[in-house]
Amino acid sequence: MPSCARCVDRGRSCVYPPSRSRAAFSSRPLLSDALRGSVPRVENGLLAEVAGNTSSHTPNLILADDFMLDLAFPFMDSDFAAPSSLIQTPSAPATRADWFLAPETWKISHRVDTLADMPVGKETIKKYVAVLQSWFERWVTTGSNPFIHRYLYSVNSPAYVQVAYTTLASYIHRTPANTDTVLQIVEDKSNDLLRENGAILDRAGAEEWADGGEQDVDLFAQLTRLHALMVYQIIGLFDGDIRSRHVAEGHMAVQNSWAGKLFHSAAKALSNTYAVATHLVGCLPTPSTYSQQQWHLWILSESIRRTWLIAVSLSSVFLALQQCWSACPGGVMYTNRSGLWDAASATEWEKQCLERNVAFLQRFECARLFDEAEPADIDEFGTAMLDMTFNGELLEKWRDRSGGL
C-alpha cells in the first residue's frame, strides 16, 4: 500500500477511500472573490481551476501640491492580471499543503481604486521610513525583524550578510567623531557588493550603476545580496548626508533589478513541487519531518515576499519625499496573521495554520481585513503595509471599533 510523506512522519497508515463521482464531492471556498475573480473550489483536497480576471486602466502620475501622495505606497499603476487571494474564510483553516507556493500566489498585482483609497501624507511616509529603520536596527540587536526571519541565517550567514550586518552595527553605534569614516565604509562596501555581483557603472560621471549580472543565480544568494544592499540603501538614502544620498541614488536601479530577479526566480523555483525542497539545502536547517520542510519553505518564501515589498518601497518612498510623486511597482501576496512569523517550531506553525485564518492576501486586497479581523490578529509587518496602503480614517475607525488596539 503506498503512503504519503506526512503519514510516514506521523507513523500513520494512509487510508485511500473509495472513489466517488465528481458530483458527490463537497466544496468550500478557499480563495476569496472579495475584490475580483471567481471563488475556486476544493475538490478531493486539491485546488480546482482558478478563474483569472484581467483588468486594465490608464497609468498615471501622482502629483500633489500639499505633498499628498498616492496611497499605494510604492506608487505606480499599470495593466495587470492578478488572481484572487488565497485567504481562507474566517472559519476555514489552511488545508492545502502548498497554499503559499502555488503558481498563482506569485503574481505582482496593481491597485484598483476603491473607496478605501485616499492620498497618504508626508508624515505617514516619514513614519513608515522610521519603522523600516527600526526594523533594520532590530536585526542587529535581536538577529531578526519582520522581514528577516530568526531562522533564515541560523545555518548559513553568507559573507555579504556578515559584512552588511557589521557595517550596520557600526553605523548604529557611530559617534560624531567617526561618522564620516563609517559612511565611507558604507559607500565602499556597497560599491564592492555591486561589483562582485556583476553591476557596472552605467554613467560614471553621475555614479549611476546598472545590473549587468546573470539571471541564473542561486535563490538564497539572491536573497542575501538583496538584504545586504538594502542595509546600505536604508543608510544612504535616509541618513541625511549629501554624499551618501548621492551614492545610494546611483544604486537604486540595481536594487530594484535585484528585487525583481529574486521574486521572479522564486516564482519559478518554489512553485515547482518536484524540486522545491532542494532550495532549502545550504539555507535553513535540514528538515527531519514533512512538517519541518513545509515550515522552512514557508520561512524562505515569506521572507522573499516581505523582502520584495520592503526593497521596492525604499526607492519609491525616497522619490516620493524628494519630488512629491513616484511610481508604484505593485504588491504581492504575504501572510498577515499574527503569530505565524514568530512561531518557535514547525508544530506550532502548523497548528496555527490549521486552526486559524492565515490572512494570506494580495496587498491591495487587505481592505477585507477591516471586516474579517481585529487589529490584534494582524502582525507587525501586515500593520505597516495597511498603514501605507489604505485610508487613514478607515484604519482609525477599525482600531477604535476594536478598542484602540
Q: What's this entry about, in short?
A:
By secondary structure, the chain is mainly α.
What topology does this entry show?
Layout lengths: L4 H6 L31 E2 L2 E2 L5 E3 L24 E3 L39 H21 L16 H14 L6 H18 L3 E4 L4 E3 L8 H20 L3 H29 L19 H34 L9 E3 L10 H10 L4 E3 L6 H4 L7 H8 L4 H10 L4
Antiparallel strand pairs: 1-2, 3-4, 5-6, 7-8
Helix pairs in contact: 2-3, 2-5, 2-7, 3-4, 3-5, 4-5, 4-6, 5-6, 5-7, 6-7, 7-8
Distance between the termini: 52 Å
Helix-strand pattern: HEEEEHHHEEHHHEHEHHH
User: What's the number of extended β-strand segments?
Assistant: 8
pLDDT averaged residue by residue:
79
- Adjacency order of strands in the biggest sheet: 1-2
Give the CA-based shape: globular
Uncertain runs are: 16-93
Proportion of strand residues: 5-15%
Q: Tally the helices: what do you get?
A: 11
Backbone CA Rg? 22 Å
What is the SS-derived class?
mainly alpha
The description of the largest β-sheet is:
2 strands, antiparallel
- The percent of residues in helical segments reads 40-55%
List keywords for this structure.
43% helix; two-stranded antiparallel sheet; mainly alpha; 11 helices; 405 residues
3D structure, described in words:
This protein is mainly alpha-helical and 405 residues long. The protein has eleven helices and eight strands. The protein has helices spanning 5-10, 122-142, 159-172, 179-196, 219-238, 242-270, 290-323, 346-355, 369-372, 380-387, 392-401; strands spanning 42-43, 46-47, 53-55, 80-82, 200-203, 208-210, 333-335, 360-362. The strands form four sheets. Strands 1-2 form a two-stranded antiparallel ribbon. Strands 3-4 form a two-stranded antiparallel sheet. Helix 2 (122-142) packs across helix 5 (219-238) and helix 6 runs antiparallel to helix 7. It is globular. The relative contact order is 0.15.
